[in-house]
Amino acid sequence: MKGLLIFIAAYVLNCEGAVIVSEKKRNVLNNRPIIGILSQEQSFYLHSKYPEENYTSYIAASYVKDVESSGARVVPILIGKDRSYYEELMRKINGVLLPGGATFFNQSNGYADAGQHIYEIAQKLNDVGDYFPIFGTCLGFELLIFLASGRGKEENRIRCYSYSNVPLNFTQDYRSSKMFKGTPSDIIEILKTKNVTVNSHQFCIVDENLNSHNLTHDWLVTSHSNDDHSVEFIASIEHKRYPFYGIQFHPEKSAFEWKRSKKYAHSFEAIKANRYFMDFFVQECRKSQHSFASASEENRYLIYNYEPHFTGVLGSAYHQCYFFEPRGTVSNN
């Protein structure tokens, strides 16, 4: 009997010890985070500038620079792959950035299909306690809500034109959010009172899009802004359960995009305030312990294997771009 009690006590202590170790592991941050950035279909304009190469997809370099400025490295995520590609890659990286851009959600094997794989895989990872964040900017934010809505034939977003730098109108409970609960007060003041968030979109998500698809139980709106015709759209949002975040504006453009006609906000205050968002996301990604099997494997995937092109000199809105999977000259026959 005495021996049995000793065995039970030892077993309980061992189990409790395992729980403590597990908690410690969850609190250890990964200071070598690697973030995947989803590519998207090559734009018609850029395709016309590189007809010989006939690239399949691209990533604006401003997103890469934004991630790197916050202390992470980048792996490009290609479109047009099967689910196993995304599952394997997401076991190695620490989060995914869904960038803004100008592509459609109904193109087969494109940005939206890849985004759906990523969204569903990330849900499953988080459901079993494997912390995996997603951050959507502009088009990427719209894609998050489109996927959360069930991806019906009618897209759950509206036409909404904003090509201005505007402030954020925070909701009453924004400080209860993960994104803004620790934001320094001086950053909040800039975002509230200055025209520093760069908008460049012709679609947006409004409160009615959440109400119509019963998304208010799952998503927390933290701020709004007004478009060029006074339409109030959701400017920032986050999932209440998963570490999924979305913003309608473009923090990366203030520091890294320079087309004169766009008149992006480049002031010291704009740079300072917009820096916060990627710093926040990279810190979230540090909570993921995923890694590549070796340094050599890691090196094969990194963005450093690709050379950015100076597309701004060609008239593109993007100062630099990375291009992927050239298919060769298109035949006119």
Molecular structure report:
The protein is an alpha/beta fold and 333 residues long. It is built from eleven helices and 15 strands. The strands form four sheets. The protein has an eight-stranded mixed sheet, sandwiched between helices. The protein has a three-stranded antiparallel sheet with strand order 2-3-15. A hairpin with a 5-residue loop joins strand 12 and strand 13. The longest helix is centred in the first third of the chain and has 26 residues, at 2-27. The chain is globular and about 50 Å long. The model is unreliable at 1-24 (pLDDT under 50).
Quick rundown:
This protein is an alpha/beta fold and 333 residues long. 37% of the residues lie in helices and 20% in strands.
Task: Looking at this protein, list some descriptive labels.
Rossmann fold; 333 residues; 3-stranded antiparallel β-sheet; alpha/beta
